[in-house]
Fold these 2 entries.
Entry 1:
Amino acid sequence: MERMSGGCCKGSHYHEAVVTRVDRRGDVANLYLDISLETVPGQFVMVWLPGLEEVPMAPSDDDPLRITVKAVGKTTRRLVGMEPGDRLYIRGPYGRGFTRRSGRPLLVGGGVGAAPLILLAKKLAEMGVEGVYVEGQPSGDVELFIREALDLGWEAILYTEDGSRGYKGLPTQYLEENLGGFTSIYACGPEPMNRAVLRLCGDRIPCEVSMERIVKCGVGVCGSCVVEGTGLLVCLDGPVFRADELLERGYPGG
Amino acid sequence: MARDLSTRLGSLSLRNPLVLASGFIGSDESLLRRAWEAGFGAVTTKSLTPKPRKGYDPPIVVDLGYGYLNAVGLANPGIEYLPRLLSLLPQEAVVILSIAGATPQDFRHCAEVGVENNVDAIELNLSCPHVKGLGMDIVEDVGYSLDIIEEVVSLGRPVYVKLGLTDTYMELVARSLDRGVEGFTVMNTVKGLAIDIESGWPILTNVYGGLSGPAIHPIALRMVHEIYGEYRVPIIGTGGVTGWREAVAMLYAGASAVGIGSYLFNRRVESIGDILKGIQQHMERKGFKDIASMVGYSHHR
Ligand SMILES: Cc1cc2nc3c(=O)[nH]c(=O)nc-3n(C[C@H](O)[C@H](O)[C@H](O)COP(=O)(O)O)c2cc1C
Ligand code: FES
């Protein structure tokens, strides 16, 4: 297996990666690749399909590299439809990832936002940290990483919006009811979920949130990924932000 | 004693000679405020066009190691966005409005909106190398460029013409000075191509893009030197300034102010403080009392 160390493919020297395994659940796919990449959980790589587009992805595993894709546009639809042997082109990692802290962390992931959190859980578990992993999905058929979190020896809890599996409701419900039992919060999900997390955590507890915006250049110049009103760029200053820095800069949620 | 970095760029007073180049974090109000707060002497907006433009799909930039290639496709929120774009800047911020278009009427319309919103100067982007009909094809046609320049100069604001690498730029400089432009921004990117040898594909979605960064610095320096040598006019020297040394060289070649663009690839804008500090230390070491005495210094050697 080709091993890329962090930052080796800076400069747009793309690394060709071959899909070795595809695990599809509804409109979401886990693509296992034939390379490994040292990243900080929460950092992202740029994934390029020549002829289509380049899209940012926060890996859900690093050794071997795995990306978790939801079909939303033409490029992600093609990615979700990939088969073993298909090729894609990768540069990175970019951006700032999660800060790993000991203590008792709560990880809250919504939709494919769960991807960087399962990698974070794995890295924390390697440090001997035991926490709780909560995943929210629209329905039970796209449950992603509950099994993997359990295998790490963590407690893992699923919420589904339609109640088809796990608890019915949003993963932030768990946060609301159990905030006091943790020493740090990590979250990544759709905008409304992130806002709810920021509102619940405020500056009461160390809290980091990974934000999503349209990343075009990935290197902090085009401005397309700005978190409106804050002057912060998702690709350069994030994608992971401390709750207090977002709130201080005027991000609505506090 | 820390040296005073304040300087003049034509009719503009700047707190220091660093100018945010067009195209870098200049299409969002909170980013423009952040750039001003980071310490620029002036900020240039992204080139605004009469209507919003979505730009090209990614990949839009390539990091070559010795420079960058970009084809953003003039993505911008349109000139009507200008009031909002300026809304978070303090009164004292020096703002250069960059505009682009296809016709003299386009440029005039955008410039009028700029005048209404009280921008300090207007920069004419006649030289974008990767959007057909909105750039290089204009600056290569000196007569057409002059038509545009006349329309905008007549509005009475300081006008800077952004030059690209063409065979005719010295002719355009001479003739646009006759029309009353205040100065020049030198230079825009240079058309180029990058190919990914793993897949065989051109990397940029638009295939061709504009080369910037360290690779073009000597060319920009030469153009500044040539124009200043001939006309002693205000110049924003832009191209491959990725540290204080290149900034000092730009001033020595004849630039009154120094554009900062590709330096910001993968770097937070606050790090321009390092360039300012480097210029200041150089002034102390060499005994320059102000920026003005460095402008064109190499022409006296
Ligand atoms: C990503 C990117 C976007 C740019 N957009 C514009 C633009 O909208 N208008 C313009 O006049 N120049 C634009 N430029 C050119 C820069 O303002 C500058 O002239 C050029 O990059 C050379 O300076 P540098 O080497 O410091 O980057 C852009 C350059 C880059 C790399
Ligand atoms: S994607 Fe261009 S600045 Fe972040």
Note: Residues A 215-218, 220-225, 233-235 surround FE2/S2 (inorganic) cluster (ligand 2) (CB under 6 Å).
Entry 2:
Amino acid sequence: MNFFNLFKIALKALANNKMRGFLTMLGIIIGVASVITMLAIGQGSKQSIKSQISEMGSNMIMIFPGNMERGGVRQSSDDQQTMKVSDYEAIRDDAKFVSYVSPQVSSSGQFINGNNNYPSSVQGITQDYLEIRKLKVAEGEIFTDEDIKTAAKVCILGQTVVDNLFTNGEDPIGRVVRFNKIPFTVIGVLQEKGANSMGQDQDDIVLAPYTTVMKRLLAIDYIQGLFCSALDEDMSDEAQDEITEILRAQHKLKDGEEDNFTIRSQQELSEMMNSTSDMMTILLACIAGISLLVGGIGIMNIMYVSVTERTREIGLRMSIGAKGRDVLMQFLIESVIISVLGGIIGVILGVVASELVKAIAHWPISIQPYSVILSFAVCTITGVFFGWYPAKKAANLDPIEAIRYE
Amino acid sequence: MLDNNKEIIKVDNIRRDFKVGDEVVHALRGVSFAIHDGEFVTIMGTSGSGKSTLLNILGCLDTPTAGEYYLDGLAVRKMSKNERAWMRNRKIGFVFQNYNLLPKTTALENVELPLLYNSKISSKERRERAEKALKAVELGDRLYHKSNQMSGGQMQRVAIARALVNDPVIILADEATGNLDTRTSFAILTLFQELHARGRTIIFVTHNPDLANYSSRNIVLRDGKVVSDTVNPNIQSARATYETLPAPEE
Ligand SMILES: Nc1ncnc2c1ncn2[C@@H]1O[C@H](COP(=O)(O)OP(=O)(O)OP(=O)(O)O)[C@@H](O)[C@H]1O
Ligand SMILES: [Mg+2]
């Protein structure tokens, strides 16, 4: 008995029972479609988070006052005022694994230019901040060390702020805008960055020397945070250790005393996000896998029914010369056809569903070639695995009993 | 009739025991005979006498508990399952009481079936031989009728065509006319006689003692033993009997 003939026999048997074949297939179709869609959603969100994190900056390390590990929330206001400019200077001067460092203070308020006003906030930073956050000055220039020293009232605007304050399309460079009544001279405009993948506007930003924000806007003597870049992607850990050491020395913390600051790195963040989204992907894949399993059991069930129903046919085939192997193959091929055909339809449906999710819900999706190949392989294996026992049962039938079966 | 011909079947003291619970049923208690090429043998006996058991053994569907069976010179008893399947495919044509056609399948496809399990035969040859076999049973005009669109007599003709198609050394029929009315039974019997006339070897199991007159030899079983084995010197024509029967009213 050659394979082609067996294939024809199996196809004919399926054609005789189209509705049943389709319903059996439905289990597989739903299973495969959900595997593909779930993985597409899981991987899509993972990729979007990843690109979002890398958009944030280069090998960025952020230091905030207070120990977030301790209580989760920042504690008293005393805790928040532990970081000083001297901490920044110590890191700038002593840290070998840190390429850029900038203090950070921010003040929110209203910008006014003539009749236009726009609510935003001013980030007080040094020039390094632009390197750390991957920002570029498109027009004009960045402020100087002199500006920092003198707490000059100068600022650099993001494009969104420019659009809102200079509605007539004037050149903002050299103009004076007011922020909370204090006049700032615009010395530069940042290159547009557009919205990040979460939809946040990255151009709604104003930069000024940190000294200006500290002294003239907030009147404080502490800083709200530090932004650093590790020398290199792989040196993030060393840089963090170094920063910890410097800050502990600066804050005169004794051995055994907890840090009064918290360090977060971009790398850590992306690892955390990765593990969350990996977990989500695994979870989704499990759910989908279970539905594939249920589909497989559906095949087994139907194949069992089919074998019982066709006992006489099996007996007849044996009596005219079909070997056990021929009968086994016939039923196995039948179940593999069901599962593979279901797999093909499932893949198509999964891709369509993923695209629909993207089009309607605007979720980031990424269809994984491996998930297509995987579900295909799983389908074929499902067909063979769940078809095996019923087919074996058919092949082991006694021809005399089978042909007499009522 | 053709006495000095080659032995197609030789059974030598075959026994067949069935275990039913603690008891042993002796369905065959030592049966011996030989059947030569070109014989038309009827096997008779009361219900439970072992006719079907014997025929299943002759058809390589079952193996005897003891005794030897040679089909076309080959010892069947020691054969493996697959070898017996091969014997059924190449040497034997089976006709059953209840036709056993595949449902929703055309006459042609039903007849092609045994050849499908013979990989030496191309699809073209398969088709040609199936058509020829159907023509031989006078169903040349019903090639594409499905099995559920045919009468009992027609279905049995398809089954006979299927038994012929692999050009077997012997045709085995178990109560082949058991489900048919008298007139149709004689039509089928006529067909068997025609096949016999063309040189086929046939074993025909039946309940009906009258049918002994239409075969060349009659074996009677009782309690798993042969009680009579007679050659019929003047074979009656089934066609003649068929023509005396009243045609069904239109
Ligand atoms: N598979 C089996 N298991 C147990 N006993 C069996 C089996 N097959 C047949 N027998 C027994 O063997 C004996 C012969 O049965 P067999 O079917 O050969 O009779 P038969 O002559 O064909 O009868 P009938 O004319 O009713 O078809 C019976 O007593 C039957 O009960
Ligand atoms: Mg019987």
Note: Chain B touches chain A through 26 residues (CB under 8 Å).
